[in-house]
Every structure is written in structure tokens, then in C-alpha cells.
Amino acid sequence: MNKWQRSRFQPNLPLGNNGERVTACKAHRELSKNAAKEGMVLLKNQENVLPLSKGSKVALFGKGCFDYVKGGGGSGDVTVEYIINLYDGMKILDGHVTVFEELSEFYRENVKQQYESGAVPGMTVEPEVPKALLKKACTFTDTAVITICRFSGEGWDRKSVVDTENKNLWEFEEAMTKKSGELFENGDFYLTHAEAAMVNIVKEHFSKVIVIMNVGGMVDTSWFVDDASIQSVLMAWQGGMEGGLATAELLCGIGNPSGKLADSFAKRLEDYPSTYNFHESEAYVDYTDDIYVGYRYFETIPGAADKVNYPFGFGLSYTSFNWSVTSIKEQQGMIEFLVSVTNTGDIEGKEVIQIYAGAPQGLLGKPAKSLVAFKKTRLLKPGETQLLKLEFSVEAMASYDDLGKVQRSAYVLEAGDYVFYVGTSVRQVEKVSFVYTVEQDRVTIQLSESIAPTSLKERMVSDGSFEKLPLKEANDPNACGIEKLSAEMMEGYSPAVRARESYQLWKEPFKKGIRIFDEVAEGKLTVEDFLSQMTDEEVCHLLGGQPNTGVGNTFGYGNMPEYGIPNVMTADGPAGLRIAPQCGVNTTAWPCSTLLACTWDRDIVYSVGEAGAKEVKENNIALWLAPAINIHRSPLCGRNFEYYSEDPFLTGKLAAAMVNGIQSQHIGATVKHFALNNKETNRKNSDSRVSERAAREIYLKAFEIVAKEADPWSIMTSYNIINGHRASENKELLEDILRGEWGWKGMVTTDWWTCGEHYKEVKAGNDVKMGCGYPQRLLQAKELGFISREELEICAKRILELILKID
Ligand code: BGC
């Protein structure tokens, strides 16, 4: 294929063998199912109620057995041909298990009616179980399977807060926030009264109760953790289009759960330190929990350990494993563990070995444990052993000193003993005798202050108290050299279709006298020389989104046919290639990112990236707006399902695998949302006020790992403000940290329709403004001297360099 052929002509050229389409092909749907099975987490399995033996009879309770939530809403949604719910999945396994049909018929009809009345999956009411059906179900079987489901999406958080002040709230976002408030009396973290009543009735009538949690993030687990009348619980997540079948297969023992939690499950929502001030203000979020996010809080802060129901890294299996450390050594700054894992049970399965480091408290204070390495075994047969090699660098254990307690603005390894824990969750670990001793405080990297807070008053330290932070003069994120457009005028506009002069078809279609972009691709012309031919107006035009072509719906980059620059399309991610339903193209819906994180398996995540990118390519799109890697700071964030974990290391390593998979197909990944977009309410104007240490060690870390290990072609800045500066206008974030410190050379896009001013974004190194740019405002800013031609060209060059990477 010739360069840019797909972008230029949108040909109908399937990628598969014998001219078959790969989009939503059988192999991809199968991969989606298998990935789902890898990430589902068995939380509880008493009396070996699971797996269901052949010939079992079950009664399916809860509207969730039909109201299957394949993933969340917004950019994380996917247009699919079908979705397999739990009932469908059980029916596919008919020979193995028999379902009590009459009860299922009741739920099918109920959910159908709720959908017909406008409800979306997961936002439905739990109906009361008819007494007569309950009775019949009891005579049919002693085994009940309850499904609880949850839905959330972008633009709204998991609590009923309608931000009436926010002019940018889309009708849909407002409606969903209201609906959520109506449906979930105590917020959707907890069971509704109707769900709790259904659970109680089932517990009273059945001796074996299995619970399936079809959810996208952290939810209440207190109602089953110690309840002996609920024997088994599978955290099945939002498993994509095949999720119901994946769940059914695991229930029936076709496959063995091997997922491990990527988040800590606390007893109550209030037990997460981020909860108390999450909804304190629509204007800001104070990250007072600092680096003590997730298990770093629960394992470190005195008294917090008791607040956990299921710890980070936890997950059961139908088999059992033994593991032992066979050797540990340190060589040239790398610590290597060899761990031997044996399947000691009766059926095949996989285990995940996790290593946590514990640094000396020193002057900075440290989390008691931080994940530094993990590896999943292959499928081990009963009795089989595998030797795993896990390694990490000593420097990875350094902490960032933002206040100059040891050395200001540097990563330091404080003097003392560094200890290590090996095991299968953050709690099920053994401390090894090997100790790495640092004799004297050691600076591992000297940096300089960037994105420091001005208005965050205090932060948590490792004994649970708070230390005061210096307050500085705050920046006004709305200060602007030219009169700002109102928020409404920046919301939801498509790019203008730029006029092109008429030309005779049999003559050169290019602008007279210029050298075209293809010459740059052929190495005959530098990007700089190519750009120097353009007028200011043309360069400004390049710096914004371009109209959709083909099945694109999130716009493109480039699009200057008179210079030979193709219009390369973008598309969402991350749950699959998102094509608008009216195009009539169905794609594969992959399991949600939280589930993928719970696989703890780089290979399967790579495969999902690779397969997803093939679908992107086949549909003539060049850049996938995935993966999304913000940290699960609070269970309340409406987009957690799109993100991986509370832990930056797990997130970074798995997202790097995803990016490598995507880019193996020469499709550009777009890692988003950079950074600190951990709340959806008023997301375009909410200031994430965070210490520089927490920003670097927790919230930027996953991006750093991905930028360094997988070199994504593109990164998307987030909507929010960071310590007074919009992420998209944040030069310290983009130029000093991302490009300067990390050495990343790709192209930065804004998120779609930010409230940032275009010229300020360009000056900060945010190369392209999406969904549309404002060329006239850029020109105005240039005329007034707020931005120079050189600054415009720096961003234009990076956009062109990105386009040059595309096939
Ligand atoms: C979302 C992004 C998405 C973009 C394009 C925004 O609203 O925040 O994640 O990629 O829209 O659909």
C-alpha cells in the first residue's frame, strides 16, 4: 500500500486473510472473551461452591442477569452487534448448567420494558421478586446466582451532584447525574434498598448463593465479605461484549479465575481518604491524601489497615499454589528475584507474583509498601512449576523531595534499609531476609520545581497527620491577552471546512510553486523547509482539528491537500474502536480497562492493543484515542472504568504493553488524560490542587513509564486545571516535564473542546487543539505579539512529524 493511501482515499480494504474483515471478527471477539476471563477476580469461594459442576441447576436473580453493562459511557462506549449477558452466557453452556427459565423470563421482560422506557444499561430499577416465582425457583434448585450491575460515564461522577453552575454540562451529563441520584439512594457505591431486599430474600431461600459484580470500579463489598450465606463472589467487572459468556464459563469451570484486584476495596466509601473532600467544591479538589492513595494509605497510615475488606493484588483461584524465592541478587543497580511457583491443586491455573518494596521512613516519609515488580505465570498444570524472574531498579525506590528536606526538587534514596515483600497480594506477602542498604542519602536525579501547588494548604504524612504546605500567589487560569470566548462558544463545535481553490483535474492539484509533503516523507525536504513555504494563516490552520472523513467522528489532523498533507483521522478508545451507530459498522468491545488491569498480564493487554489497532486501521483511522491511564484516586470518579488502577506502576507497565500492541500496527496510540483528571464534575474548570511530590510519584508516574518504555506517538492533555494552570496551557507539564525530563518527542493534543485559549495552548507546547482550532484567534494573538511564528511552527512541526509516522 502507498503511504497515506488509507487516510487519503478511505479504501474498503479488509486486513484479514482472503479479503476478510478483521473488525469484530470471531478471533477478536474470542480474544475479548479470553481477556475478560483473565481479569475477573474471584473474591470469595467457600465450600467450593464454584465452579458449578456439570449438570448444575441455577436460578438467576437480579435484573443484572439481563441488564448487562459491557462498559461505561462516553468515549469509552462502543457500537457492537450484540452483547452477551449472563443469561445468554449460561444458555450457551446449556449442556453444563440449566437455568430456571420462568424467573429469567420475568427479568428479561422487566429489563426490556425499562429499556423501552428509555433506561440505559445499568441505570435501571431492581424489581421485586414475585413470591410465586421465588417458591418455584426454590423447588427447582438450591443454587442462586445474583447479578449486581453498575454504569458510569464521562462528564458525571458516581454521586448525585448536579453542577448547575457549569455551563459546559451536556444535557446527557445532567440527566445522568439526576438519574443516578434517583436510582441510588446512598450513591451507587452501595446497594440500593431494592437490591438489598432482593439479596436478603435470595439468602433466606437458597443454601448456595453466588454473586456476580458487573461493575466498572470500586463498590461496597461489606454486604458479602463476612456473610456465610453468600459463599462465592466473582468481581466480573464490565467485561465487554462477550462479558456474560466469560462470566458463565468461569462459573462453570471452563477456565480458572486468575485476576487480581488493581484497587483496594475498603469497608465503606468514607474509608478512602479521598472521599471526604471529593465533592467539597466544584472549583477545586484538594489532594490532601498526597501520595497515600489506595494501598499506600491502607498499608501505611496507623489504623487504616482495618478498613480494608479486600486488599490490592488479591484474587482467588479454583486451584492452589505454593511459591518460594530461590534467589535474590543486586547487580549494577538492578535487583533480581527468582521465584518458583508450583500449582499444588487439582486443576490448571495461573498465579501472579508481586514484589513490594518498603523504604526507610527518613525525613520524607514513605508508603510502607510500593509495588516494584509483578509477573503472572503461564497456565500451570497440577503439579507443574515455573521459575519467574522479576527485576527492578534500585532507583525506582527513590522518593521526590519537593520541600527540600533532603535535597530540593530531587529524587532521593534516603539512607537506611530497603526491605522487600513477596507474595500474591499486598497483604499475603512474606518479608524476605534480603535487605538493600543505602549508607548515605543519595540523589538519583536532580530536577527543578515544576507544576508546584500554590493553594493546597496541607497534605497527609506517613503517620496520618498533616503537614502545612507553603502558599503562593495563585495563577488566574482565565487570564488571556485577547478577549476570551465564552465557554458555550467553545463547546462542541466541529472544525470549519476550509475552502480550497478550484483546479483543473488534469493539472497538479497542489498550490503553485510549492514542494509537497510527500517530498518530506521521501526524505527530499526537511519539515522545517516544508513549513517555511506556508503562510501564517495556513500554519494556524494546521494547529486545530480537521473535519471528519469516512467513519471518523472525532475529527482529524493535517488536511491540507494543496500541500499534499493528508487528513489523518482519530477515533476513541479505549474500550474498542468507537464508530458512531449511524455508520453501520460494528466493532469489538473489549473489557473495560480496570478489568484489563486486573489481568496483571502484559501479554494479553498487548494482544488487545494489537487487535484493537487492526480494527482502527481497517477502518482507515490512524490514531486511537487510547489508553486512558488516570489513577483511581477515588471510587467516585465517573471514568474509573476507563482507567487501570490506584497504582501507578501497575498502570504504567500494562499501559506500556497496550501502547506497544497498538503501535505494532503502525497506528498511533494517544495516552490520555495528562494529567490529574480524577473527577468528572465540572471537569473543564476544576483545579486539581496537588503537591509536586504526589503529582510526580503517583499521578504522572504512569505517564512517565509509558512515555519512556513505549514511546506513544501522541499524548492527550486533560480538561482540568493543575495548581492554577490548565493542563493544556501548562508549559511546565508539557515542555519541562514531559519533553524535557522524560525526553519524549511525540505530539500533544488537547482533549476535545477544552476551555483553554488556543494561543496559550500552543505556547505551552500543546500542539493541536481538538475538536476544532481557532486559526483566526491565533492570528490575532500573533498580530498582538502574544505568540510568534516560531512558536506556531514548533507545534506545526510536531503535528507533521506525527503524520509522517503514519503508513
Ligand atoms: C474525552 C476523551 C475523548 C474525546 C473524543 C472527550 O470528551 O474526554 O477521552 O477521547 O472526548 O471523543
Automatic annotation (TrEMBL):
Keyword Hydrolase: yes
Gene3D superfamilies in the record: Glycoside hydrolase family 3 C-terminal domain, Glycoside hydrolase, family 3, N-terminal domain, Immunoglobulins
UniProt cross-references to SMART domains, sorted A to Z: Fn3_like
Family annotation (Pfam families): Fn3-like, Glyco_hydro_3, Glyco_hydro_3_C
Domain of life: Bacteria
InterPro entries reported in the protein's UniProt record: Cellulose_deg_GH3, Fn3-like, GH, Glyco_hydro_3_C, Glyco_hydro_3_C_sf, Glyco_hydro_3_N, Glyco_hydro_3_N_sf, Ig-like_fold
Start and end residues of each Fibronectin type III-like domain: 351-426
A Gene Ontology biological process term: carbohydrate metabolic process
Gene Ontology molecular function: any one: hydrolase activity, hydrolyzing O-glycosyl compounds
Keywords: Hydrolase
Family: Belongs to the glycosyl hydrolase 3 family.
Name of the protein this chain belongs to: Beta-glucosidase
Source organism of the structure: Clostridium manihotivorum
